[in-house]
Amino acid sequence: MEEVNVTVKINGKERSAKVEPRMLLTHFIRDGLSLTGTHIGCDTSQCGSCSVMVDGHVVKSCTLLAVQVDGSEIITVEGLGTVENLHPMQKAFWEEHGLQCGYCTPGVMMAAIGLLQENPEPSDEEIREGLEGVICRCTGYQFIVSAVKHAAKLMAAENQVVGEGR
Ligand code: FES
Ligand code: FES
């Protein structure tokens, strides 16, 4: 199959790769651009592990083709923070034990950031509703809710929602 060039601004840097037109955005990010923080849990839009931000909106990256995002701005979990300088969402997950095996965590954090963009002070119920599209196989949901609540406070204090695109 003839390959096409796809160029995106991802985590603040312009990157390009040649892909088959049928390649999913998830595979483009992981295999084409070697950003493996975005996980694949199902490939069928069920689990949310592959969630990333495209042009300011959180999407499950297995629901889009790479060619559909040509020219877009993308933020993946790698664009949130660094070990030395964690994003408030990462800090909150660390402090509130919001992860166990961590497989779902990148997608959950991206979905949670999308939720807080729309509702900066969600109730427990609104957090559960907002994250219903992401599945944690370790079933640590109460800790995830606590982490997102804590993140909301940290983000409000820092006036920060999305990553710096590092
Ligand atoms: S891998 Fe995309 S929703 Fe599960
Ligand atoms: S922490 Fe293990 S799948 Fe969610």
Explained architecture:
The structure is a single chain. With about 170 residues, this protein is an alpha+beta fold. It has 2 domains: about 80 residues, Ubiquitin-like (UB roll), CATH 3.10.20.30; about 80 residues, [2Fe-2S]-binding domain (DNA polymerase, domain 1, Orthogonal Bundle), CATH 1.10.150.120. The chain is built from 5 helices and 5 strands, in the order ββαβββαααα. It has a 5-stranded mixed sheet with strand order 2-1-5-3-4, sandwiched between helices. α2 crosses α5. The radius of gyration is 15 Å and the shape is globular. Bound molecules: FE2/S2 (inorganic) cluster (2 copies). One FE2/S2 (inorganic) cluster binds next to loops.
Q: Give the CATH class of the largest domain.
A: Mainly Alpha
Structural class: alpha+beta
**CATH level-four homologous superfamily name of the largest domain:** [2Fe-2S]-binding domain
Low-confidence stretches: none
Q: Major beta sheet, specifics?
A: 5 strands, mixed
Q: How would you describe the shape?
A: globular
The tally of domains stands at 2
Tell me briefly what this model is.
Helices cover 33% and strands 15% of the residues. With 166 residues, the chain is α+β, with helices and mostly antiparallel strands. It folds into two domains: 76 residues, Ubiquitin-like (UB roll) (Roll), CATH 3.10.20.30; 77 residues, DNA polymerase, domain 1 (Orthogonal Bundle), CATH 1.10.150.
